[in-house]
Amino acid sequence: MKAERFNLIKACRNFLQLKIDVLEKGLNGLKEDLENESKSSAGDKYETGREMINIEWNKLSAQLNEYEKLGNILKRIENHKPSGEVRLGSIVRTRLANYFISIPAGEISTQDNKFFAVGIQAPVAQKLLGKQEGDHFEMNGKTFRINTVS
Fold it and tell me: Is the pLDDT score of 55 beyond 80?
């Protein structure tokens, strides 16, 4: 199970890194645009252009900050010790789906299994939290039985 947890965390880290790389590229592009804007004409057009760049910069910076927070969540769950109860960092297996309660990274495939990496605020995570092996929960009109929690 430790290898599986390692692989899931690694896949989540890769997901985050791809997102961070795109945002950093966008921020670098905006920095260049801002430098070019500073070299161009003065007046209202100049101020409007700078303001549009600043708005986009703030938006991308906020997104980057959120991804960094998700990275911190992954750090917190690296040394997760199974407790038998679903909590942050748990791997939950059911007959119909497998879940990794971590960050919202979507579907992840590891060797023979598919998992849904979901954040703690996701509706399915909210239904799972505190449950144990053998417990049941309903989602989208289906009843799920928790086979294992690790």
Answer: yes
